[in-house]
Amino acid sequence: MDSHVKEIRLRVLNAMPDAAFNPPATQAQLDIAQESIGLQFPRWLCDLYQATNGFTGPTGVSYLYPIDGQNGLVSVTSFVRSEWNLPWLNNCIVFSDNGLGGSGTVHWAVLNGQLIEWCYGDGHEYQQLDIDFIAVLRRTQATWNSLNEGDV
User: Fold this and answer.
1) 133, 110 Cβ separation under 8 angstroms
2) Does residue 130 contact residue 44 with C-beta atoms inside 8 Å?
3) Separation CA 101–CA 90 (nearest Å)
4) Whole-Å CA distances, 136 to 29, 33, 63, 107, 141
5) Packed helices 43-51 and 133-151: angle between N→C axes, nearest 10 degrees
6) What are the pLDDT digits (tens) for 101-124?
7) Which pLDDT tens digit goes with each residue over 10-21?
8) Which residues lie closer than 8 Å to 136 by C-beta, 6 or more apart?
9) According to the model, what pLDDT value does residue 16 have?
10) 106 pairs with which residues across the strands?
């Protein structure tokens, strides 16, 4: 495993210590996914996928979808685009969610190169994030930690 892959995985683990990684995505998988959804991945997302083709977090939720497969980036992006009549979704790469389900599902996506957060309950609105995806993972882990502390 090269040092760049190790560095990315370490950054994820520092944010979300229970992350379990899939093997890295291949360049061919990245190329097929980008062609399938009609959008180019930003460099940081390519780097993340070249370190791991998806990973799960503290509750077994897939915090980075695998590129392909039934619950992969391509299928989820296509599904979200078809289910919601929101023109801006056609310019999105949906690559993660919080696993809550229903109107509590928060999706993380790339829209025109910008990291965004969108919840089904938000309808047409989305929030541009001024943080990177690793900071999103830290924030999510902190939420799970606080919920677990309440269980004690």
Assistant:
1) no
2) no
3) 22
4) 25, 23, 10, 11, 9
5) 60
6) 766 788 999 999 999 999 888 888
7) 999 999 999 999
8) 96, 108, 115, 117, 129
9) 94
10) 119
Q: How far is CA 48 from CA 81, 132, 150, in A?
A: 23, 12, 32
Tokens of 18: 């229970």
Say how far residue 84 (Cα) sits from the centre of its chain. 19
Give me the count of residues in the chain.
152
Instruction: Using alpha carbons, list the distances in angstroms from residue 67 to 27, 63, 125, 142.
Output: 11, 12, 26, 26
Residue 61 pLDDT > 50: yes
pLDDT of residue 146: 84
